[in-house]
Design brief:
Length: 532
C-alpha cells in the first residue's frame, strides 16, 4: 500500500534548520509608478526611489540563464520562486507562489497547489501550465540552464488543473524544496520567453514586486513598482513599498563608499576597509551576516591540471591570513572547511584540508615530478579579486610556481573558465548556498554547470545523488561531510576565506534587517524610505 501524502506541516523532512551581458542600452516602455502617498497604520510610508550600489554587473536578468551568483541582487527583485525560503532555510509560504504542497513516496512526487490571481508583469496569468513550461525549459539541455543539474531528479511535470501541478520524480528528492528557492524555482512568463527569445535576458517578465524599466548594460538596472503585485506584508499592506529601485554598478570600492557617504546611493554592502569608519558614523546603520559567502576561492579545471599534487601544491602555497589582513582588513574569516561556509549545516570545521605550508607545497611539486610550474589564472574585474590574485601570484613564486593573471568581467570569466575551458585555475568568490545540493549538483557532479572539465566521476556522482535524495538530516550531513573531504583532498575547489557581509544605509532606510535573505543577497520588497 502506498504511504499517505505528507502535508506541508511535515516538510521539515525536506529541510535543514539553519543552516552574457547583452550589448548596448536596452529599455522597456513602462511608466514609473506614482507614490501611493499614504502612511499605513504601522507608520510605513509608500513611495520613494531606493538607489543601490553594487560592484558587479549582471550577466543576465533571466535567472535561469545568468551565470554569476551576483545576478541574484537583480533578479530577486523581479521574480518570485515556486517555494521561497526564510534565512534559516525553512519554507516561507507567505512569499511563495505555491500555497502548499504534498509529498508522495510511492511513487515519488511533489504536488503543488498554486496561489490564485497572480499575473506576470506582461499580464499573462501564472498557473500550472506556466510552472510546467518553466521546469521543462530548465530541463531541456538546449536551454543551457544554469540550474539544470540540480533539477534532473524531476522526470516529468503534469498539469492537474489550472492551479495544481505535479512533479513526477525519478527518486526521492530531499533537497527539492530548497533548490526551488533558488534559480530552479524562478517563474518566467512563458509568453514573453517565447516572444523575445534571446532578447528575453534583458527584458524579463516575472511575478515579482518590481518590473524592469531600463537597462544600461554594465552601468545600471532601473526597476519600477509592480502595481499588480500579489504580495502583502504581515499587516496586510500591499508590497512593495517603494516606487522605484535603481541598482548602479560601481566596481571601485572607494567610489562605492564615497557614493554612500555623499547620498548618491542609499544602500551598499560595505568594502571591508571602510567598515570601521561607517561604524563610527551615527548617520548610518549596519547589519551583518557571518558566513555570507566564500570571499576567495581557487577553482581548478581537472582536465588542464590533472595531477592532484600540483593542485594541492598551489593550495598549500597560499596564506589566506595575509590576504585577509592586506585586502580585507581582517573582516573575513579563514576558511576552515570547504565551500559550505560557517553557518551552513553541511559545514565541517574538522575536515582535513590544505593550509598554508610552503615546504609542503614544494614537496608536492616534487612529487608531481616538477621543480617549477607555470599556468595562467583568470579572475573577474572585482578590485579585491584583482588584488587577491596579485598576492597569490607573489606567494606562488616563492615555491617555484609562476602564475599569470587575466582579468575579465564576471560573465565572460565564468563562461571562459567553466565552458570554454580556457584556463586551469579560476580565482573567484562564491555565493552563500546553505542548501548543500546546490553546490554539489552544479559544481561537483560530473555534468554540473560549474564543473569546468565535466570529467566522469562515479564516486562523486554517487555521493551527490545520495545527499540529494535522503529526507534525513543526519544522513545528509554525513554524506556531505564525506563529499567535502573528497573535494578538498583532491583540491577541486579550495576556499581561502569566508566572507562577512556588512550592509550599510542611512537611517532613513527602514527594515534594513530584512534586506539580506537566506542566500545573503538583497531583497528590497520590504524596504521603505522615511520621507520628510
Amino acid at each position: 500500500m502506498s504511504p499517505p501524502l505528507k502535508q506541508w506541516a511535515l516538510l521539515t523532512l525536506f529541510l535543514a534548520p539553519l543552516l552574457v551581458a547583452g550589448c548596448g542600452q536596452q529599455e522597456t516602455e513602462q511608466t514609473v509608478a506614482k507614490p501611493i502617498g499614504v502612511t499605513t497604520a504601522q507608520g510605513i510610508q509608500y513611495g520613494g526611489h531606493l538607489r543601490i550600489g553594487f560592484t558587479t554587473e549582471p550577466t543576465s536578468l533571466d535567472a535561469v540563464l545568468g551565470r554569476s551568483g551576483g545576478d541574484a541582487y537583480y533578479w530577486h527583485q523581479i521574480f518570485d520562486q515556486l517555494v521561497d525560503a526564510n534565512p534559516d532555510l525553512t519554507p516561507r509560504p507567505e512569499t511563495s507562489l505555491a500555497l502548499r504542497w504534498e509529498i508522495s513516496n510511492d511513487p515519488d512526487a511533489i504536488t503543488f497547489f498554486l496561489r490564485p490571481d497572480v499575473v506576470f508583469h506582461d499580464g499573462a496569468p501564472f498557473d500550472a501550465a506556466a510552472v510546467k513550461f518553466n521546469i521543462e525549459r530548465i530541463l531541456d539541455p538546449k536551454t543551457l540552464a544554469t540550474p539544470r543539474a540540480s533539477m534532473t531528479l524531476i522526470d516529468s511535470v503534469d498539469v492537474i488543473d489550472e492551479l495544481t501541478v505535479r512533479f513526477n520524480l525519478k527518486s526521492a528528492w530531499g533537497a527539492g524544496l530548497n533548490m526551488l528557492a533558488d534559480r530552479g524555482g524562478v517563474m518566467n512568463s512563458p509568453e514573453r520567453v517565447l516572444e523575445l527569445a534571446k532578447d528575453y535576458s534583458w527584458k524579463p517578465s516575472g511575478t515579482g514586486p518590481f518590473k524592469v524599466n531600463k537597462v544600461i548594460t554594465g552601468t545600471m538596472v532601473n526597476l519600477v513598482r509592480n502595481e499588480n503585485y500579489w504580495g502583502r506584508d504581515e499587516y496586510g499592506n500591499q508590497l512593495p513599498y517603494l516606487d522605484e529601485v535603481t541598482i548602479r554598478v560601481i566596481r571601485d570600492e572607494t567610489v562605492l563608499s564615497s557614493a554612500l557617504r555623499t547620498g548618491e546611493i542609499d544602500v551598499a554592502y560595505l568594502p571591508k576597509k571602510d567598515v570601521s569608519a561607517f561604524q563610527r558614523d551615527d548617520r548610518f546603520q549596519i547589519r551583518t551576516m557571518e558566513g555570507g559567502g566564500v570571499g576567495a576561492a581557487l577553482v581548478f579545471n581537472l582536465a588542464q591540471i590533472d595531477d592532484p599534487n600540483i593542485r594541492l601544491a598551489i593550495s598549500y602555497a597560499v596564506d589566506p591570513s595575509v590576504i585577509n589582513q592586506a585586502i580585507f582588513f581582517n573582516r573575513n574569516t579563514l576558511a576552515d572547511s570547504g565551500m559550505w561556509p560557517t553557518g551552513a549545516w553541511a559545514h565541517d570545521g574538522d575536515v582535513s584540508r590544505p593550509t598554508y605550508d610552503p615546504e609542503k607545497a614544494r614537496e608536492l611539486l616534487r612529487a608531481a615530478g616538477k621543480d617549477e610550474f607555470e599556468f595562467t589564472a583568470v579572475t573577474n574585474n572585482s578590485s579585491t579579486l584583482i588584488l587577491t590574485a596579485e598576492v597569490v601570484r607573489a606567494m606562488l613564486k616563492k615555491v617555484g610556481i609562476s602564475m599569470e593573471i587575466e582579468v575579465m568581467n564576471a560573465g565572460v570569466a565564468t563562461e571562459r573558465f567553466f565552458h570554454g575551458e580556457s584556463y586551469p585555475v579560476y580565482l573567484t568568490t562564491w555565493s552563500r548556498y546553505p542548501e548543500p545540493d546546490w553546490l554539489a549538483s552544479l559544481a561537483y557532479k560530473s555534468d554540473g554547470f560549474y564543473n569546468a572539465a565535466n570529467l566522469p566521476r562515479a564516486d562523486v556522482d554517487e555521493l551527490v545523488a545520495r545527499g540529494a535524495a535522503s529526507y534525513d538530516l543526519a544522513t545528509r550531513r554525513d554524506i556531505y561531510h564525506e563529499l567535502n573531504a573528497l573535494i578538498l583532498k583532491e583540491a577541486l575547489f579550495v576556499p581561502l576565506l569566508y566572507s562577512t557581509t556588512y550592509a550599510a544605509a542611512p537611517r532613513k532606510v527602514q527594515n534594513l534587517d530584512r534586506l539580506m535573505g537566506w542566500d545573503g543577497k538583497m531583497f528590497v520588497r520590504e524596504i521603505w524610505l522615511e520621507q520628510n
